[in-house]
Fold these 2 entries.
Entry 1:
Amino acid sequence: MTTIDLCIKSNHVLNVFSRLFEPNVLWINDGQIIATGESSTFHARRTLDYADQYIVPGFIDAHVHIESSLLTPSELAKVILPQGTTSIFTDPHEIANVAGANGIQSMIDDARQSLLDVYTMLPSSVPCTPFEDSGATLTVKELKPFYQNPTVRGLAEVMDYPAVSSNQPDMIAKLNDCLQAGRQIDGHGSGLSRHQLDVYRQHQISTDHEATTIQQIQERINEGFYVFLREGTVERDLENTVGAVNESNASRFAFCTDDKLVDSLLNEGGINDCIRKAIHHGLRPETAYTMASFNAAQAHQTPFIGALNPNYQADIVVLDDPYDVKIHQVIKKGHLISNHDFNTHPLSFAKNTMNFALSPADLQLRLNSATANIIQVILNHIETEHLVEPVSIHNGNFCPDPSNDQLKMVIVERHHHTGKIGKAIVKGFNLTHGAVASSIAHDSHNIIAVGTNDADLFAAIQHLQKVGGGITIFANHHELATLPLQIGGLMSNLSYKETAQKLNAITAAYQSISRPIAFNPFITLSFLALPVIPTLKLTARGLYDFDQQKFIPIEASIN
């Protein structure tokens, strides 16, 4: 008889291959399931009998930007491991846009402190378009050496469709290097037609997480994509898309959070929240838990995680209630997770990433017409609408009008002291006075700010430079609250609890200068700088129209 580490018994063990719960026994040694079923061959040092609980594989987040949580990888693990997420596939393109290959390596190194399996998908588009102003440029030369690391599982969300369709050499080399390394390629199909999706598939891009409607889901499934149903802090897409899943096509779906702040993770959860909502909208629990584990591993061509079978890693979640995702115990590589498993050291990042100069006059928005193209925020989505409205002008300059929710937005290039400043008019933030500024602005992460007056805008932006990046709220020339993000202007070097507290403080400060809103203003603001998402966005070079694929003037002509 062979002595092994652990035996787990239950009347309800999920078989992801049949999508059924069944009585079973799991025999675990050295972090791996070595056998299942009743056996006289093994003797376990410890036996756990979960007769009435439900046993499922550890949850897998199929696509997440760790930086969006505002936490380092090791600090994020302290939040999501107890929630049942035992593996994540992360795209560190936020820190890569600020600090290049060194930023990616710092994330990989920090993740090693945690029991959480952090699989890296290499940023494919840094910058995301040729006309962006990021802190770094990642060519195929910088990316290729990373494939020697077994935790690097592929190439992350390819968002530069023109580079793919025109066979731009550096992009095609990135795709080929990934495939030659035996890894897989993630897509980013926001706004793409069926024909354009087909072009992605021709280049063996195999996943997408940007579908927001049933029709978009169906187009991706018909093209052979794996589809990641997304539920982030503002990317609330799951309710609109989960209806596309049925027992015939479920194997093509997984879950992801993409961008989720630490307070949302603590209050709602991550992948556990996706599962709960999917079940609430009609999915069988067996199907939802399979999507949350095995399907994600299959989409990323990562063997031996995501199932409760021999040769699979012993990543296990024990549930008291499978319908409400009530977690009894999390087991990672055969190790029972407790609150004593999280001793980590802060990520060290000394690079100065606030390199700009600004004067109050730089914020003036000159207009030659009293009719303007305006960015309209869409509630809990990262896409925008294109409005054309009359605006107020004084001495040739745009005057924000809080009563009509017409606010000034600016983007200040912060990486190379270029002096580039983009300006636009935005609706949806409902500020009554004051301003908010942030060093999080996807994907180049320049300074982005929105406000009711230039004085508060200027003060808020200058304060970010002083503290090394973050999110700050100003009103009447005074700081109301600040969340410093000294790691690249993206992540906090504090604990998740301290970071969440400061995030709550700036949320309260924002609420004090605004009318009620039903979305997170900080992530929403950050995505108004991303020109690969429809429709109107602002970069440091000006107002960009995704539909026309070009920069447009703020002044609008009326036909």
Entry 2:
Amino acid sequence: MAERHYTRQLATIISIDAVGFSRLMGIDDELAVAAFEERRDIITDSCGAFGGRTFGVAGDSIMAEFGNPIEALRAAFDFQDRIVALNASVAEDMRMPFRAGINTGDVIVREGRLYGDDVNIAARLQEFAPHDGLAISETTWHHVKDKTAAVFTDLGEFMLKNIALPVRVLIVGRGGNGAATAAPLAAVAPGHYKPFAKGPPAIAVLPFQGDGSEPDVGYMADGVAEDIIYGLSNTRWLSVIAKGSSFQFRDDSLGTRLIGNALGARYIVSGTLARFSGQIRLNASLTDTSNGRLVWSQRFDRDLVDIFSLRDQIGSEIVSILDKEVDRAEQVRTFQVPWESLETWQLVRRGRWHMNRRTRRDTEIALEFFDKAYQEDPNSSAVLNELAWWYFWRAWLRFGDSDDLDKVEAFARKALLMDSLDARPHAYLGAADIMRGQPASAAEHLAEAIHINPSFAFARSAMGSARLLLGDAAGAIPFFLDTERLSPFDLYRFHNLGELAVAYCFVEDWEAAIAAADRSLNLSPGYFYARFLKIGALMRSGRRDEAKRELAIFSTRHPDFSEQRIRWIPFVDAAKNNFLIANFDQAKSIA
């Protein structure tokens, strides 16, 4: 075998990549190639002027080698300034910006080509750079930090593809009077942020982008984002990055993954808002920054009437959705961690995953996880709240078991001692009072829960139930409708729709009662109360044949049904129980 001849040397490598080259090729391939070659010549000229040389041109990527890191940085600033000026002279959709990554390290040189991990690191770094921007490694930063007026923004350490050790990445912008690519991020001090520390995840809400020239669209976009930050902070279990930090990232060209790493946030909320023809359209999304995966996105179209009430409505709706989407994502994430290594908050998420399956066995497993979490941290408000909910759920299945309700109250009151601004204990105390037949007391607890967290769908549904028991069906309906808006995919939505059907029965809107009961049964066909209500509403609306068919299904599914189940419901006025039973009995009389 022939002997291979190569040398090793210390070098600084710039990896340069054209942004949007494939898009331009799709529009006009000849024009795209010409534009690339024109900019490539600029890059080659700048690199040569500062003592470097280009090599390894492949497709829309270029490599350059320098002996001095300072000269490499100056060359990168020079060719990017020249390309920015060139792009400004062409139509916006035909511009071709370039981004670059710089790394300094040991390379192998053979026949004019450079090899080694440090070359590969430069190639990976350019993927972090914004359009017309520059990313460097910590190694290069140590060489240039005291010899330039550039502004450096530390994004933290990353594991790069096929690189064994983590690499610290910094974004570089011009200092002084030069272009300030990184200036909006300057307050992020190098080394300050540590990505994804142990403990519950953090979420950051970026300023929403206003799509349009009107200033009030931008103001409203900021207002919605602020409302979401405020609402998420009231969920208590989720850490929320302060507006002062997250609002620095108005330019999202860095990408959510890098912004999340800089802020130490596992989840990023971003969006756009546009106004047209008396309406607004808001697009919002939730991204998992650990893997770049889009977790959730949704479009909201609303009539533009009262800006402030509109902000409240959309903001609270998004908060409720985000709370559940992050919770769901974290439940799934716990399965990537060995059971014995789960932290307290992860035990809670795993328990919630089993709880949401709603089987007898899963419910038992959920309690095991909650109990283990309680043993590890008996003063955790998150754990105390989950135990309160678990015993409330079992009490509901057992039609108000007093021992379980006592446990709900004990855990909820202890949770309040740990965190008096948590809405959940107030809601669980209110729910327990409903089960005990004390709706007036329940309403007080629930009003406090809603005051603390207006986006708390469970509290709004429970308030509707309290109003029903007090005899105010018309006043209950808005609470159930708010719950539908705030939590349209809630696991326990079947119950809220069942309660809505009751309210419509009491105001004698039979068609609405039937529709609500149908929606409840679509979600939970075995829910006896919804079918019971539907049968009575069908009879009162004159649809006797349909009522008979539903009664046959009811009798098959619930052969042990007794009217005592309905008499157990603690309406303040027993005439309400009699009213519902009489509706149902009409169907029995014709069967």
